[in-house]
Write a structure and sequence with these properties.
The longest helix is centred in the middle third of the chain and has 15 residues, at 240-254. 9% of the residues lie in helices and 38% in strands. It is globular. It is mostly beta strands and 377 residues long.
Length: 377
């Protein structure tokens, strides 16, 4: 139990175990989500957790009902995203009326795993309600995808509407799309009065999905979209708790928000079905191997053959003999609080507390640094 700030605590465990720690639930409460008391503070207790229902309850507006004495567990569902066009508002974009003086930004975060069928966006269709303004004033839209400027448009010519293609080579598994509006005038200096104007991103602004299958990790979401299971074949001597602590953050990167995959222990991936494999299986063909304390890749290990890490993960896209394939995760040691890198068009990622690097489809190590060139002496 926390020594202070008990009101912000959510307790998880059987009613009896929570009671031993000082939490008292109502006498007539059914098991599930229950508001009890810890000293003089109302504290929420989850006495019979259900992964899908409880998580949707706690992360949705329905949690406001927890001010009652009892909140029995019940089915909570939200409509999944669908169709070829996903509203930016559904992805968290602010569509309220805003004020703009010089510039205003709208940031939209989206995961390929959460998009319908795991498809890559091909464009963004933005519609802005622009304010009345002088003839010499222009509204410029700049579109940034993951730190790369992909387009700039003059909105005066299109009455606030613009459709901007999004290059698939700039897509990641987790993406940040930034729409920036800038005010530009022919006049300058003291001739321009600093004035704020109302501006609004309209609710019909959308992320338009395409048909590009993706490469590397950007293609995995489409593979896993029909549904998948997490397989842990298991090896003697493995610590299951340490293994789960190491892989859970990575699993969440590939799992849609409304998906609750089955965990299948001591089983190998089912033929013909997409999967996430933790460990190794005979019918799965990885590009990169983690064997005999070495990381190897390429024909006869010619592309890569280096010492393996003591603490870290090898995450890669894989194919299987009887199906579409999926993701393979191999862990060693403890990963701790290591920050995960961005997953993009590469085939594999080697992730360690000291740093990470990518491996391309041909087994070579990827690099973002340009080749060294001869400089003038």
């Amino acid at each position: 139990m926390p020594e202070s700030d008990g009101r912000s605590t959510i307790l998880v465990g059987p009613d009896g175990a929570l009671s031993e720690e000082g939490w008292a639930g109502p006498d007539d409460a059914a098991e599930g989500i229950v508001v009890g008391r810890l000293s003089d503070s109302p504290v929420l207790g989850v006495t019979t957790p259900d992964g899908g229902q409880i998580s949707r309850y706690l992360t949705s507006p329905a949690v406001t009902t927890a001010d009652g004495s009892v909140a029995d567990r019940t089915a909570i569902s939200t409509p999944p995203l669908g169709g070829d066009r996903v509203p930016l508002e559904a992805l968290g974009a602010d569509t309220s009326v805003e004020q703009i003086t010089e510039t205003r930004r709208w940031r939209v975060g989206y995961s390929l795993a959460d998009l319908p069928e795991g498809r890559l966006p091909q464009s963004v269709s933005a519609n802005f309600q622009l304010p009345a303004s002088p003839d010499d004033l222009r509204w410029i839209l700049n579109v940034d995808l993951n730190g790369t400027l992909v387009a700039s448009r003059n909105l005066n010519d299109t009455a606030g509407r613009a459709t901007v293609p999004l290059p698939p080579e700039r897509e990641l598994l987790e993406n940040t799309l930034t729409l920036s509006i800038e005010r530009d005038r022919d006049l300058g200096g003291c001739d321009v009065r600093v004035t704020s104007y109302p501006i609004q991103l309209q609710t019909d602004s959308t992320l338009d999905l395409g048909t590009d299958p993706g490469i590397g990790f950007t293609g995995v979401s489409r593979t896993l979209a029909p549904g998948f299971a997490v397989y842990l074949p298991g090896e003697s001597g493995e610590n299951v708790v340490e293994q789960l602590n190491a892989i859970i953050p990575t699993l969440t990167e590939f799992t849609p928000a409304d998906e609750n995959p089955d965990f299948r222990w001591n089983e190998e991936p089912e033929a013909g079905q997409p999967f996430i494999l933790v460990g190794r299986a005979p019918d799965v063909s990885p590009l990169v191997g983690l064997t005999d304390s070495r990381i190897v890749a390429g024909p006869d290990n010619a592309a890569l053959d280096i010492p393996a890490f003591d603490n870290g993960l090898l995450v890669e896209t894989v194919t299987s003999a009887g199906g579409p394939g999926g993701v393979m995760i191999q862990s060693r040691g403890t990963i701790g609080q290591t920050e995960l890198p961005d997953f993009g068009r590469e085939t594999a990622q080697v992730i360690t507390p000291q740093g990470s690097f990518t491996i391309n489809g041909d087994g070579t190590v990827g690099t973002e640094m340009p080749p060294r060139e001869d400089l003038p002496r």
